[in-house]
Design goal:
Layout lengths: L1 H23 L3 H5 L2 H21 L6 H42 L2 E2 L5 E2 L14
Antiparallel strand pairs: 1-2
Helix pairs in contact: 1-3, 1-4
Length: 128
Amino acid sequence: MTQALHAAAATLAAILTEENAALATLDLPRAAGLTAAKRAATDAFTAAHARLAASGSPTLDAYATIHLRDLAAENRRLLNRALATQARVLDIIAQAVPRASTQAPRYNATATLVGRARALPVAITASA
């Protein structure tokens, strides 16, 4: 049973390491693609840990526990950073849309163009 826990811990650590690498470069699609695997690995680890704890057997050694804790803490930090970055991008877009829409052409009830003949170009830039 200890082997099952160690295997589950190793799988979870590998997935967290991969997700952390994706999040560090803000590769959000790659990080999001690991969600199902991370959930499955977490469930497998939790189940294996619960089985060992219920039987009174020793669980993970201190090194493995600290390693997983550190990976999870880094994962949380990187996820929060990615969410904050995404929120900033959405704020930039949300601020640009009203300005662009006030300059866009309008049509009246008879489908006749009113106002400008064409919309002015809008450029959106952001830096992380």
